[in-house]
Specification:
Elements: H1 4-16, H2 23-30, H3 34-46, E1 50-52, E2 58-60, H4 62-84, H5 94-101, H6 106-115, E3 137-138, E4 147-153, H7 161-166, E5 174-180, E6 187-191, E7 194-198, H8 200-203, E8 206-209
Antiparallel strand pairs: 1-2, 3-8, 4-5, 4-8, 5-6, 6-7
């Protein structure tokens, strides 16, 4: 059964992805029934963690956002620990971190952050702290001929992460959009591992940032 922390964390994660959040979206993302999601959202609203607009859009309150930030920070620190200290791959740690995050105290959270030298981003490229000051855009929004570095990959559909890694799409990789098929067709992208096609829905999960500029050559 999904608890309060799971719901708030997922709302914040969807918010970071720029999605409109409704009971239906949450039910699908958390793999619960719509009545279960609606009942939990009613409870969260009653306890002051969120509000719901007339159209059904869900918004976190200050208290809800603080708790969501805490859970996301612990989750992402665990992901960093599993990759940096235990040698796991970036695409396989999301589910494992979810099993651990609820048992972490504030003291252990701080100890993890210190042991990891206070990382800025999780292995998927999301900020450990609430604010990401990088200019980001979706791969699906990039025009043909455009390029960028993979900054974030959404964790919402965890099952596709190994596939993205397999085709060479992972945080830190530079991507060049060679071509875009018309009528909502796939993007043809090139990375240092080769050329591949990416559907729009999958490309929307990937966010890019500008490639670092090469320093000028000395005169």
């Amino acid at each position: 059964m999904r608890g309060i922390e799971d719901y708030l964390e997922e709302i914040k994660r969807l918010e970071e992805d720029g999605d409109r959040i409704t009971a239906t979206v949450l039910a699908r993302t958390l793999d619960v029934s719509l009545p279960s999601a609606s009942e939990m959202l009613k409870r969260l609203a009653g306890e002051g963690y969120l509000s719901r607009e007339d159209g059904g859009t869900i918004l976190l309150t200050g208290d809800g956002r603080r708790l969501a930030h805490t859970m996301l920070r612990r989750h992402r620190l665990v992901e960093c620990l599993l990759v940096a200290k235990l040698g796991m791959s970036w695409y396989e740690v999301h589910g494992e971190a979810h099993k651990i995050e609820h048992a972490i105290s504030a003291r252990v959270e701080e100890a993890m952050a210190k042991a990891l030298d206070y990382p800025d981003f999780c292995p998927h490229g999301h900020p450990i702290c609430p604010v990401d000051l990088r200019a980001l855009w979706r791969l699906s929004e990039t025009e043909a001929g455009g390029t960028g570095v993979v900054a974030q990959i959404s964790e919402v559909k965890e099952d596709v992460l190994p596939y993205l890694d397999k085709i060479g799409i992972s945080p830190g990789v530079e991507v060049y959009v060679k071509d875009i098929a018309p009528l909502g067709g796939p993007l043809t992208v090139e990375t240092d591992t080769g050329v591949t096609s990416l559907g729009r829905e999958l490309a929307a999960m990937v966010r890019l940032t500008a490639a670092p500029q090469e320093p000028p050559l000395p005169p």
